[in-house]
Amino acid sequence: MKSYFSKCARIKMLVPWSYLKSWSCLACGHCCKDYAIPLAEHEWLCFRDLFGSMALEQVLDKKCLRRGPDGRCIFQYKLGNHWLCGIQSAKPLACRLFPFKVCFQPLFGKEEGASFKYFGKKVFVYADADCRGIEWGNPGTELVRKIIPEFIRLKLDGYGEQFYSTAHIQTQNPMPPVRSIFSACTKTLLPLAVIA
């Protein structure tokens, strides 16, 4: 197992989902700091129209959400001990999927540990080992029946409600909701939430 982790460290430290006992979003904000958040073309156009080009940046050959001087996504804000997403219901697919990567072919071996049957189809699911919400061990029931399937659904559909794949933080003074303005981006009429 140690040699496998050494190989992954050179790539991005993606590990097969089956190494995880569980996962939950801690709203620690680590995922929104020092990561370039790539946007699909339609997401880039939508964010440009909604927020202007100042909300975007080019990182190498990728169009991304802008990061502030501290390396943090400009849409993230701190509330108590949590870092929350100011565009929850409109956040890009890359953000919705973190820390998981859903693929249709195995990456760098370990096919058996990454494969997952989803409605009869085999997909390959990896987790970014840098995520602080990972609990290592044998996969638990909730991970297998609820969490991983929701991430696969998000990858396949490109949008949709998140329950298991987001934090559940109750706030007394949430940011004001932004409603239908985001429906063009997310194909949903849900209000903007204040959970990461």
Précis, in short:
Helix content is 26%, strand content 22%.
If you had to describe this structure to a student in words, what would you say it looks like?
With 196 residues, this protein is of the alpha+beta class. The protein has one domain. Helices cover 26% and strands 22% of the residues. The chain contains six helices and eleven strands. The protein has helices at 2-11, 41-51, 93-97, 111-114, 141-157, 183-186, and strands at 14-16, 20-23, 37-38, 56-59, 62-65, 76-79, 82-85, 100-103, 115-118, 121-128, 134-136. Strands 1, 8, 9 and 10 form a four-stranded antiparallel β-sheet that branches. A three-stranded antiparallel β-sheet has the order 3-5-4. The chain has a two-stranded antiparallel sheet with strand order 2-11. Strand 9 and strand 10 form a beta hairpin. The chain is globular, with a radius of gyration of 17 Å. It starts with a helix and ends in a 10-residue tail after the last helix.
